[in-house]
Amino acid sequence: MRSAVHISSAIFALASSVAGLNILLTNDDSWASANIRATFDSLQQDGHNVLLVGPAVQQSGKGGTFVLPTSNIVAPGGEFDSVKVGASFFGQNVTNPNLFYFNGTPAATAGFAIDVVAPIHFNNESIDLVVSGPNEGQNNGPYLYTLSGTIGATYYSVERGIPAVAFSAGNSTHRSFTTNTGLPDDPANQAAKVTDPNAA
């Protein structure tokens, strides 16, 4: 697994050296998790055009399963009360048009982002890279390829012909982005720094 981490870091370090990439950012821990929002901010500050489309609720352990929503948001609502019960199965943040949720599995969320949201957001330009994570837990082990939703979103994207990389923070802190302290030692900001080599 160590070599895979080095390969992922090398790929992303190369991609990060090019300013202005069209990046689709997703995960399996929800669009409102601290890790993904910190990484979103870091990549944007690096000069990339970042579109975040994450599951409405935590979808860990779903692997590459492709499950589309069959209803609007049901109780108890989106993760960390980020989406109200009865809201549409997908939606956009009211204050930041680059942030979307989708009430499907990670692979289905990636598919929705690729086919529906990204063509509008990127004005029909191609997605240069899909970044999935940083996952809150550990994604080590021989069976994680089929178990991890974080990885499932990436191999769906690769099957669609888009370069993708998955990151695992291993900080095991499932919490809302609203709890981010803004300090460099906040676990979410540390995860973002590892994900984005150019982060301060």
UniProtKB/TrEMBL annotation:
Residues 23-178 form the Survival protein SurE-like phosphatase/nucleotidase domain. SUPFAM superfamilies: SurE-like. InterPro entries: SurE (IPR030048), SurE-like_Pase/nucleotidase (IPR002828), SurE-like_sf (IPR036523). Keywords: Hydrolase, Metal-binding, Signal. The keyword Transmembrane does not apply. Residues 177-200 are annotated as: Disordered. Residues 1-20 form the signal peptide. GO terms for molecular function: metal ion binding; nucleotidase activity. Pfam families: SurE. Belongs to the SurE nucleotidase family. This is Survival protein SurE-like phosphatase/nucleotidase domain-containing protein. The lineage of its organism: Eukaryota, Fungi, Dikarya, Basidiomycota, Agaricomycotina.
